[in-house]
Design brief:
The chain has 216 residues and is of the alpha+beta class. It is built from 6 helices and 7 strands, in the order αβαββαββαββαα.
């Protein structure tokens, strides 16, 4: 398959490229906030002090990343979420203690940056709590110049990739539906993802992650 062979060749080179990361000064002081908008919402994988509904302005959540690893392969790419240019995104902000900062950053890099498809950045997010304060949070924004950037795919194209996708973290369908479940647990909807979820519900039985629980 020409698509897979081309992307696999480029992927080999991409793995050797250094990731774009915040400066150490940005990551070295006090508690760390992390903004989750996809699987981090329902499977953060790191210790945190609190989690708060949050909104990031300037980028939106989109199934715009071909997955060659976690939810697909170079031969049969899946689709995963990225923060793409424009709009806004509702998600969850996690506060990590200062003593866990370095370990958390290293964990996130090993999880999110296996192919360096994201830019690791600090973004202002607005916490949707009583204080309504703005904090600077670590976030993963898609690199539009990367070979895995899918751009804006039609719903039919998204469905095809999600149905075929299966990688080392499981099948692509459960990833999408677990994210939709987490979004609904927060009391809002993401219309493009919900449309796709409706088309996936008649597939094989679900193995979904439950919504994030308090006290983690």
């Amino acid at each position: 398959m020409e698509f897979a062979s081309l992307h696999f060749e480029v992927l080999v080179a991409v793995r050797a490229m250094p990731a774009k990361m915040p400066s150490e000064a940005e990551l070295s002081k006090g508690d760390l906030w992390v903004f989750g908008y996809g699987s981090l919402m329902w499977r953060p994988g790191f210790e945190f002090l609190e989690h708060v509904p949050a909104r990031l302005i300037g980028e939106h959540r989109a199934l715009c990343v071909y997955s060659f690893d976690h939810r697909g392969t170079p031969e049969k790419p899946g689709l995963v979420l990225g923060l793409d240019r424009g709009g806004a995104c509702r998600g969850i902000a996690f506060r990590v203690s200062a003593k866990q900062r370095n370990d958390t950053v290293q964990y996130l890099r090993s999880r999110e940056q296996t192919t360096n498809v994201y830019r690791e950045v600090m973004r202002s997010v607005w916490l949707e709590n009583e204080a309504r304060q703005r904090v600077s949070a670590l976030a993963y924004v898609v690199d539009r110049g990367h070979v895995q950037y899918a751009g804006r795919l039609s719903l039919a194209e998204q469905l095809r990739h999600v149905q075929q996708g299966h990688g080392r973290s499981g099948n692509n369908r459960d990833y999408v539906l677990s994210t939709v479940m987490s979004i609904e647990a927060q009391g809002f909807r993401d219309q493009p993802l919900h449309q796709l979820a409706l088309m996936l519900h008649d597939d094989t039985p679900l193995h979904l992650h439950p919504p994030l629980q308090e006290g983690r």
